[in-house]
Amino acid sequence: MSSQTTAAFPWKRNLAVLWAVQVLTTLGFSFTFPFYPIFFQELGVEGVERAAFWSGASGWMMGVGMGIFAPIWGIVGDRFGRKLNIVRAMTLAGVLMVLSGYAQTPAQLLVSRFFVGAASGVVPTIMALVASHTPRERLAYATGITMSGLYLGIAIGPVFGGLIFDAFGARAAFWATGLVLFAGVLMVLVLVREEFSPAQARGRGVLAPLADLWRMATARSFLPLLVVLILVHGATLLVYPVVPGIVQTIGGGAATATASGVVFMASGVASAVSAVLMGWVAGRLGLRRVVMLAASAAAVAALVPYFASTLVLFVVGMAAMSLFAGGLGGLVNGLIAVQAPPERQSAAFGAAQSAHAVAISIGPLMGGASAVAFGLRSVYLLDVAAFGLVLLVAVVFLGGATRVERGDEHAAV
What we know:
With about 425 residues, the chain is an all-alpha fold. It has a single domain, classed as Growth Hormone, Chain: A (Up-down Bundle). The protein contains 18 helices and no strands. Helix 1 (about 10-30) runs antiparallel to helix 8 (about 170-190). It is globular and about 55 Å long. About 60% of the residues are buried. Mean pLDDT is about 80; it is low at about 400-413.
């Protein structure tokens, strides 16, 4: 158990509340994130391929902002408390998302994405607070549960977001995002507990936490985990700019946002189930073996939406790919929580968030560029390649990183 937590600390209640906050957070962001291609078209971008490219570029801008500031926010959480950092992240994200809805040009919407990425970082901060108060032997379980909340929000959010989009327009969806995030802030303030002591930060230079973070992120047992996170999240985000366009071509253009929301809901539900079950399977078959099997199956499943000619088959293919890929992130986050010292949990998840930021920067941008150059469905071939690289990393590098499964609590970080 974290050195900051007493034996009587209600970590299960905290986990339940933070799971709900995680659901609200991704629920709110999912009101808008999948539909940026449609919003860019409303702002004057012509053609689904060009809208997909602009959407990918906006994801790149968000990833750049997140990548620059995520390690800094992680260090802030270690010094001043993770609960305060969650409130800071959700409040700023809510305000900036509401303001994004007032963008008048594609360039303004593009710039707003940078500031949303720079100011938020909610997910790793929630992960850090969960990890800091969870018994060590239950960390993989707790991070898997938390990731399931993320995927459940992603599953539900696009459906409601699509309905709001089609019924009231894009700006109403941005307002709804802000309101949901503010509701999450109230839950954290009222219901979440934290036992935090900043004593470990005293007497250290300003640059010392950054040096610690660099050593941690580049350690042999840690770096492969970050690479897998980049590949898994990047493969997932590759398809976001093109799904509305594919749905539009398959369905003839009627209620595109709502139909796209159904696609994302199926993917999110499959990912949530995967996040819960994959940790259980890994405990019996071994983490590296499960990562290898899941990556292989996800690569094969990515071919289904590539060839799909009907909306039903497209939904099935997206769900199948998510079922195998969704739990990979939870497993890797569990290993990060186990390997990071308790006083550096926020910094460790800040590094993980930087990896996620790289994926956000590269994934949608590559997806949008591929759509323009080779057609909308070409992104699924990139997914096959990405999951193939996950398999390669697991085979070559993850042997040492998974020693924690056998009780090696002194693995280098």
